[in-house]
Amino acid sequence: MADRTVTVTDIATGKSVDLPVLDGTNGPSTIDIGTLYKKLGYFTYDPGFVSTASCESKITFIDGDLGLLRYRGYPIEQLAEHSTFLEVCYLLLNGELPDKQTFETFESRLKMHSLLDEKMRRFYLGFHNNSHPMAMMVATVGAMSAFYHDQIDVHDAESREIAAKRLIAKVPTMAAWVYKYTVGQPFVYPNNKLDYVSNFLYMMFGLPTTDYQPSPAFVRAMDLILILHADHEQNASTSTVRLAGSSGANPYAALSAGISSLWGPAHGGANEAVINMLEDIVQSGKSVNYYIERAKDKDSQFRLMGFGHRVYKNYDPRAKIIRKVCHQLLDELGENNPHQRLLDTAMELERIALEDDYFIQRKLYPNVDFYSGIILRAMGLPLNMFTVIFALARTVGWISHWKEHMSDPQARIGRPRQLYTGADQRDYVRIDERS
Ligand code: CMC
C-alpha cells in the first residue's frame, strides 16, 4: 500500500479521489490512476505514452535527462566494457549475473537449440529473392509458433524458460538464413564449437567453399552492438510484445509482432535510414550543410536520421560507447574500407550538427543507430540487414519482458481506452436517399 496519495478534485462536481503514489527504485514516482474512471468517470489522455507507465518492471532503467541506462542495475558502460552479449542475455532473463558454471550450462543449453526444424527451410524458399529481410523475419519468427504451439504452456514457468532459450538460440540462425536467401547463397548450419557471436558471423558469411574465420575486431564490434541493443525498457516494440503476449498469445507470435513494430524508421529502422540518408548526401553532390538546413526547415519533412531520441534528452549513453568503437574500427580498417566516403560524410554531419544551435537547443544528439549503421556498413553488411541485427539483439529484451509480464500474478490483458471524437449517433440512410 502506498503511503502517499495525490488528490484529484473535479471542481465542476466537487467530487474527489485519492490516488496512491507509487515509488520505484529509481525514476519519477507514479500516480496509480486505476480507480479514476470508477470514482470520477474520467479516462486519462496521453498519446505516445509521454507520461504514462504501462507496467511495473525490474529489468531496465533509463534516465533520459541524465543519459543513464542500466540493465538489472548494472550501468551499460560497465557491461559494454567487461561483459559479453551472452552473459548480458543471462542477466536480462534471470536478474543476476551467472557464476562460471551457471554460465557454461546456459551457453550449452542455448547451443542445443540453435538448429531450426528442417521444414523451416521451405518457408524461406517461398519468398521472392528481393524480399526485405525484416518482412522475412516477421514471417519466419511468427511461423515458429506453428512448430512449438502444442509444447508451450504460457502459464508454466518451465515452459516459458524453454521458449525463451529457443528464441535466443534460433533467431541468429533465422537472421543468417534470411541473409543467405536474399544473396542466393546456401544456408550455413550453426557450428556449436563457436561462441554465440562468432557462430552468427560464421552463418552469415561462411560458405561451403571457404574456411571462414570471423575477424576478432568484427566479433567484438558485433558483440558490443548486441549488448547495446539488448533492451531499452518500454519502447514501441517491447510494449508491442507485452501487449500481444498479454492476451496469452504464443511467444513466437508475440515476438513477430515486436519485430513488425521495430521495423519502422522512427524505431529500429533508423540505422538503415541513416545509411540511406548518407548515400543520398554523397550521391547528390550537395554539401552536408544543405541537409542540416533542410532538417531545420519546418516546411520540410526531412529529419536527420540517427539524431534525437524520445527518452534521451541528453547524450544517448549507448551512442557514447559505440562512437568510440566506431572511430576505432574505421581507423583500423583505414584504406581497406570501401565505404570511406560515406563514413567521412557521417563524421562531418556529426561534427556540424553537434555545433549547431538548432540541435543543441532541442538536445538532438546522435543516437546509437547513427553509429551502429556505420559500423555494420563497414563490416560489409547489406543495408536491409541492419534492422535484423537490432531484432537479433532485442530478442532477449523482448522475451525477458514477456516472461516478466506472464509471471506477474496481477497481469491482465492490455486494453487501452480512447478519446472518441468521431460522429455522434446518427440514423442509417438508404443508398438511393443519400444526397
Ligand atoms: N532532425 C531534425 N529535427 C528533429 C529531429 C531530427 N532527427 N528529431 C527531432 N527533431 C525536432 C522536431 O522537429 C521538434 O522540433 P520543434 O520543437 O521545433 O517542433 C523537436 O526536435 C522535438 O521532436 P519530437 O518529434 O517531438 O521528438 P520525439 O521525442 O517525438 O521523437 C524521434 C524522437 C527519435 C522519433 C525523433 O528524434 C526522430 O525522428 N529521429 C530520427 C529517427 C531516429 O534516429 N530514430 C531512432 C531512435 S533511437 C533507436 C530506438 O531506440 O529505437
Task: Please provide a written account of the structure.
There is one protein chain. The chain is built from 18 helices and 6 strands. The protein has 435 residues and is mainly alpha-helical. The strands form 2 sheets. The chain has a 3-stranded antiparallel sheet. Strand 5 and strand 6 (74-75) form a beta hairpin. Helix 6 (133-148) runs antiparallel to helix 7 (157-183) and helix 12 (270-284) crosses helix 17 (368-378). The protein is globular and about 75 Å long. 37% of the residues are buried. The mean pLDDT is 93. The structure holds carboxymethyl coenzyme *A. Carboxymethyl coenzyme *A (CMC) is lined by residues 232, 235, 266-268, 270, 295, 303-310, 362, 364, 367, 369.
What share of the residues lie within helices? 40-55%
Largest sheet: 3 strands, antiparallel
Instruction: Tell me the span between the first and last alpha carbons.
Output: 60 Å
Structural class assignment: mainly alpha
Order of helices and strands: EEEHEEEHHHHHHHHHHHHHHHHH
In spatial order, strands of the major sheet run 1-2-3
Overall morphology: globular
Give the DSSP E fraction (strand runs of 2 or more residues): 5-15%
Q: Would you identify the regions where 5 or more consecutive residues have pLDDT less than 50?
A: none
Mean of residue pLDDT values: 93
Distinct compounds present: carboxymethyl coenzyme *A
What's the number of helices?
Answer: 18
**How many distinct beta strands?**
6
Radius of gyration: 24 Å
